[in-house]
Amino acid sequence: MALHSFQPHLHFFPNPKPRFPIATVRCSTNGRDPIHERRRLPPPQPPLLLSLVASAAVFLVGARARACAVNPSPPSLPPQVSVTSENSVTESSNLDDERTEDEELRAAFESWKLKTYALTVPLRIVTLRGSVPPSWIKDFMQVQGKRMKLISELQGSLESIFSDLSSASDKNSVEPKSAMAADLVSVGDSWISSAISKGLIEPIKNAEEQDWFKSLSNKWKVYLCRNSKGELDSNGYIWGAPYRWGTMVIAYKKNKFKQHKLAPIEDWGDLWRPELAGKISMVDAPREVVGAILKYMGASYNIKDIDSQVVGGRRAVLHNLTMLQRNVRLFDSVHYLKAFGVGDVWVTVGWSNDVIPAAKRMSNVSVIVPKSGASLWADLWAVPAATRFTSHKIGGRIRSPSPLIHQWIEFCLQIARELSFKQQVTPGASPFALEHLPAEPSQQSTKGPKMETNLIDGVPPPEILSQCEFLEPLSEKALEDYHWLISSMQKPRRSWIRSILDNINLRIPTNRLISWPR
């Protein structure tokens, strides 16, 4: 009877905590322990047959038996022993079942760990063609392994990347194949202020905590930290990560100079020589043209007010601009190297990443950084502002960029990546070379076509580099001065420019042209 009375208290559900016996955690609905409750039940009455047997035993056993009959012990002990035994057996059985279940789960988990799943982490980058060595892509994929899917797309100019970002912003929509949907894009330092102010890129999250940012020099950190208007701000955010840089350079044909007994070009002032009238081509970039004049006059590229900071003010700068215009045959960022290549001009002024590859394919060409310093340019990795769009077409990228962006930036800034620049596989220099200057040209850089230059592995000598400057955003007053200078320039006749371009295009096949300059 006792055994059957306790059956309803048994549980048929698995123990959620195998380490604890079921008996220790089981409780009744009223919050009391059912086992202790059972121990306080009144003892059951002995059956009639048991009483008769006990009475007969009194007469047969004697005095000892009579004493026991006078004070009989509670007959409830046997049922209690029976209940305790049943409870222990039940708990032991449950523990065995739980151990078996735990072993099965452990075996299933070990089997799951051994399985291979096709889970990949994507990283999509849009880069300027020729700015990233092909070996970087291959090496990074080997380092990350098969669980990383790297998609690299090339565009011909920084302007085209900027235009792609602007198009998505203007339409307020983003397509999966657009640059806005990429995790990282190449942005030139001259474009970054506009990209920030127009909301085309977003700050790189947690950049200050990353090793790649901590390893950069203070000069880089100051230049990369900006506010939402794109202005330099020490309390701003980090909007880009540099992966290469270079300078403005002057290239000239040594054979032409020797033939006409001209002194080599060494500084900006040489561009005003009368014997070079009509023999110069130059990029059509106001910051570079006016900046060269400011350097020639002993001022800075990043001057805030020309009238108050330059001797003679705007009038003096305009006079030098007019004189330079007489010597420059072509202001054009597309065709200036074509004119130099066919010999229509003897001197060209442009960015090192464009001029140096072209000069290496020619003979008797010298490339120099002016002694008084030049402007610096940089190519940066930036994160497109795709998170501000509400779209389901680009998957997880709409929430945040790939978690691999910091690994990619860190990889691009490793010391081993400098070799591609030193071997001149890709024009430019590592960001670390801005502070740690090479003492002499590396052995690898002396191979290939002979080119006379004062650059050391793509870096100006220390005494010249100290006078070079990154182009900072113009102040309102300086921007007004630039507009006045450009609008006051003498405009050449359109037919004169058109005849030069037509003549150049007829003499150079288009399949031999280098990539468009920035």
UniProtKB/TrEMBL annotation:
Instruction: Spell out the molecular function terms from Gene Ontology.
Output: polyamine binding
Q: Compositional bias (Low complexity) at which positions?
A: 79-93
Query: Where does this protein reside within or beyond the cell?
Result: Periplasm
Q: Which GO terms describe its biological process?
A: polyamine transport
Entry keyword set: Periplasm, Signal, Transport
Cite the residue spans of the region called Disordered.
71-102
Transmembrane ranges, per UniProt, are none
What protein does this entry describe? Uncharacterized protein
- Which species does the entry assign this protein to? Iris pallida (Sweet iris)
